[in-house]
Design goal:
There is one protein chain. The protein has 242 residues and is of the alpha+beta class. It is built from 3 helices and 15 strands. The protein has a 4-stranded antiparallel sheet with strand order 1-2-6-5, with no helix packed on it. A 4-stranded antiparallel sheet has the order 4-3-7-8, with no helix packed on it. A hairpin with a 4-residue loop joins β7 and β8. The longest helix has 33 residues. The chain is rod-shaped, with a radius of gyration of 42 Å.
Length: 242
């Protein structure tokens, strides 16, 4: 057999035979392929596969895009009291979450998960609160707020005055949302030397003062605010002629 015969047997005729075999499967009448039939066969064979590949690539791209999205915070609610602050919030993309953490001035704060994607935390000190959510793909989202509602300062004496033989000492816990008020039930006026309670002490809670006869010795006024912050105030009798 000559080289020309070999080329003929492995050339176009073999391709034509293959087209004749697959044409019925492609819905084309089985006949000796012409140029138009060959083009239609190739189109019917390749287009579905190209479309499938494009759809698959789009699905992969969409999945990668979703996986790389950070979680977002929703429904952030801060409940402020003078002795604590409670924060509740929600996150989306729950299935992607790896961790939700919080710090107050850089110190860790416990975060409680109430339900899927619903969290709560509580702090009892003022400071900068930072909350962060991290997905397992490494995407991080966070928000910050200042906690300033907690009463962490003790009461203080705003003024004192002597009226006749009676000493009036005005006590206050300040003003504003971080003021819990004076706990007058905690008030004690005692002698420093003997340690006993001073007699004839009266309290006016409305006007905010404690009154007692000016003693001949030093006394201590002890009082707390409603958050337990204490004040211990020492009063010494002025020296004669001072």
């Amino acid at each position: 057999m000559s080289d020309q015969d070999n080329r003929s047997s492995a050339g176009p005729d073999s391709g034509d035979e293959l087209l004749e075999q697959i044409m019925p499967k492609l819905g084309i009448e089985a006949a000796k392929p012409t140029g138009r039939y060959k083009s239609q066969a190739r189109t019917n064979y390749l287009v579905p596969r190209v479309v499938t590949l494009c759809v698959l690539l789009l699905l992969i791209a969409a999945a990668v895009f979703v996986l790389l999205l950070p979680s977002r915070f929703r429904g952030v609610v801060l409940e402020e009291k003078t002795d604590r602050a409670r924060l509740t919030f929600r996150t989306d993309r729950v299935m992607l979450l790896e961790s939700v953490t919080a710090t107050l001035d850089g110190r860790p704060v416990g975060v409680t998960m109430l339900d899927a994607g619903v969290y709560e935390l509580e702090v009892r000190k003022n400071g900068r609160l930072d909350v962060a959510a991290r997905t397992f793909t490494g995407r991080r989202s966070d928000f910050s707020m200042t906690i300033d509602c907690i009463d962490d300062a003790p009461p203080f004496s705003s003024q004192d005055q002597l009226v006749g033989d009676d000493l009036y000492v005005y006590l206050t816990d300040g003003e504003g949302k971080a003021s819990s008020g004076v706990n007058w039930d905690s008030l004690k006026v005692t002698r420093i030397d003997g340690g006993g309670a001073l007699e004839d002490v009266s309290v006016d809670r409305t006007d905010g003062y404690v009154r007692f006869p000016l003693p001949d010795e030093s006394v201590r006024i002890y009082v707390e605010d409603n958050c337990g912050n204490p004040l211990a105030l020492r009063l010494d009798r002025p020296a004669e002629g001072g």
